[in-house]
Write a structure and sequence with these properties.
By secondary structure, this protein is α/β, with parallel strands linked by helices. It has 9 helices and 14 strands. The two termini are 28 Å apart.
Length: 312
Amino acid sequence: MAEKFGRGKDGNAVVVADQGSVRFACVQSAKGVKPFVSDYGEIPSGDGREGLAAAMKNLGVAGVKNGMTLLAPQDYQFVAVDAPEVPEAELKAAMKWRLKDIIGYPIEEATFDLLSIPSPAAVGGRARSIFSVVAKSEVLRGRVADFDHARFRLAVIDVPETAQRNVAALFEEEGRGVASLYFDEAGGLLIISYRGELYHARRFDITSDAIAEAAGADRDDLFNRVLLELQRTIDNFERQFSFIALTKILVGPDPVDSGLAEFLRSNLAVTVESVSLEKVFDFAPGTLPGREAQWRFFHLFGCALRGTAESQ
């Protein structure tokens, strides 16, 4: 563990606490150079707020004032809706009433943020779309209080969709869109970005464990399910955003080589690339992550890119 992580002043510090452990990453980034991962790792933590505080003390992060963390998929909803036709200053208030019929609990108990889906002025006749990220206020207050107790002041609470977009943007080619497909214990996440902006996000009910354990006919069925959903998504996306040339699908990182990327490469006309983070990140000497570590810390690295020229 690098000492500079504890000081929290060389780059963005991200901490995620889940399943009895604390994962952390620190990334420095600037326009025109590869982002530099100065530190990352994982340590066990005890139960509850005191367990987190003890783990954070061991990390040496006390006093960090611009910390970041990520919500787990079960802690929020990420939905695309047609934006109401109101002045920009009134958009958030208008969206509040549109979301109340979507989220399944009283809107007064929710906190939400908005992320525009850009569309060129030349594309007319279509309602403006917008992403809404919605979470229960109680969940967010609890998360902030937990980290405050550990003296790790949160400046950002992010979600995997935008973290994954940040990494995908590093792989983009000029004037071309890119899709990114990633699986973990919570399921699959597909995003499509263009010029560093998020245009599409959807989840798959297929976990990384299911992919790793599948064999024979079960494996073929699983891979064909992924292929079919990808084809449907790409077809719909290209109809909706015909001004974007989608030329690449990124797959992974994954904890083991399941063969999914090769299967998709053989069955899709678009280029399929297995993600290797060393192509777009530099790492401190002696810390180049292996396949499993790249998978484990993928979204933390992406979250830490927030606020750079390449991300929002």
